[in-house]
Amino acid sequence: MAVYTDITDEELAALLADFDLGQPLSLKGVAEGVENSNFLLETEAGRYFLTVYERRVRPDDLPFFLELLRWIAGRGFPSATPIPDRQGNLLKTVRGKPCAIVSFLSGLSVRRPSAAHCREAGAGLAQLHLAAEGFPRTRPNDLGQAAWAPLFASLASAADALKPGLAKTISSDLELLAFRWPRELPQGVIHADYFPDNVFFTAGKFSGAIDFYFACVDAFAYDIAVALNAWCFEPDGSFNITSARQLVAGYETRRKLSTLERSALPVLAHGAAMRFFLTRLHDWGATPAGALVRPKDPLEYERKLAVHRASPDLVLYGAPA
Amino acid sequence: MAVYTDITDEELAALLADFDLGQPLSLKGVAEGVENSNFLLETEAGRYFLTVYERRVRPDDLPFFLELLRWIAGRGFPSATPIPDRQGNLLKTVRGKPCAIVSFLSGLSVRRPSAAHCREAGAGLAQLHLAAEGFPRTRPNDLGQAAWAPLFASLASAADALKPGLAKTISSDLELLAFRWPRELPQGVIHADYFPDNVFFTAGKFSGAIDFYFACVDAFAYDIAVALNAWCFEPDGSFNITSARQLVAGYETRRKLSTLERSALPVLAHGAAMRFFLTRLHDWGATPAGALVRPKDPLEYERKLAVHRASPDLVLYGAPA
Questions:
Q1: What is the number of domains present in chain A?
Q2: Which residues lie closer than 8 Å to A200 by C-beta, 6 or more apart?
């Protein structure tokens, strides 16, 4: 949960004066989004989200994110669309911080996704990849494979503190991933954080995705690999092959995977687990004791890493032959 | 901000199965309410608040609060009305905790109320007092004058830690308040926590009040005294006579004060400042360092106490002669 920025009625009125959204009717800080402050905003014109970008988001990246949201919404992808002010600006300022007003997106995220949810989520992810086709801006994946070894350099002792001997195992993983990482896969805009809490369902059907603040250009199949880690592990740590198969099958109802993409899924999934392990390990140590946001447990992803390490082809059982 | 209870899509579906509200469309934890967890709930039938009562609210008190909300809503007071399930129950359970679904109330609270806001707020408070007339249930004010000395008994050293010598001053205040406390004032249901963040405005006009979880039967004028403390002090600690006059005048547009009530306002305001000073002092010491809720500063109310102590008739300048 996170609401870092407090907005007064006067600041809200000043912001809305630039828009054609009528008078504000209500504003509620929402316990959602770790990177930003989010408010549910109701005006005479309807319901919106007001997102205030906190320090973790680089201001230079905001035009990419906001224009992307506008682009995919224009191509029928259900997401929160940024609302331009009267001058056509998507990016605004409140309390000296960048912010945007986006449309409200209905839907519920699921805590424990079923295989049917995974199928829907997979189809939604492919829909996103297709909707983003032709988007003219680009943004590198700054948490991609090339970033992991440098990121780990300062975290070796944190890894050993988490679990004795872990640093050595991670180093060996990183070497393997660098060696085996596929570099010729079809690329495009990916979500890069396609977790169950960022995906909405209505009556069991995919109804949209939110939180595009890691979106970047990278391999489409890497986005599937992130999702396989996020959606297809059971609470006991086991990998659910049925869910994985449904996620990939759902994806392929909209976009077929090439043989190269399919055969890359295991190493991509191993790498995706590494990416989330490393950032969680980093946040675990970096979060002050009294912080309002509880960091996510890096051990969850350490266990997923171990699964991929022990059964390097496991993910393939979830991919159609 | 506070969302202590997490609700899964499955738990929400089970709860909604008892209601005629259709399928859930969205659920957002809201950073509002220190005592409870609050969710903005959208269903096919409309928008609601789902409130989960956490340990600070006594379950035995919940029927009083919920029936009161239904009663005043039935008499035209704009507040969040509890929605009965198919069996007519207002009080439900989710995750083993008591909860209720209430109607959504639009409006914005103001951070720095103007004198005009104070007038509107005063009129709204009188409207509440009148709407609650005849409500058949009762609940004592367990944070009323009789509770202060026992509450302070365990806080004397905390007071001295806050400010050396403060414990002696507070003890002397408590004696004075016990001696001068008026006991013959007109009584009824009062809000007892009528602070700016619990009062909504739409286009500058009073549009409702929320957070009735301190409501009880006590002197109507005591409710005004709480509001004078909460609404009429400037950030520099000075008491704004103009705002106070408007608050009382706004109140009297709907319910005239008797001479006895008006002349009691100074001691009631001194006592109301004591009530919030004591509970804040208590929470200040009782909140663990890593807690998600930041306790409110007791010094704010220590300064208000000092103003009432130094100028015992100051509040009267805000009351019409």
A1: 2
A2: A78, A105, A106, A107, A108, A109, A206, A207, A208, A209, A210, B26
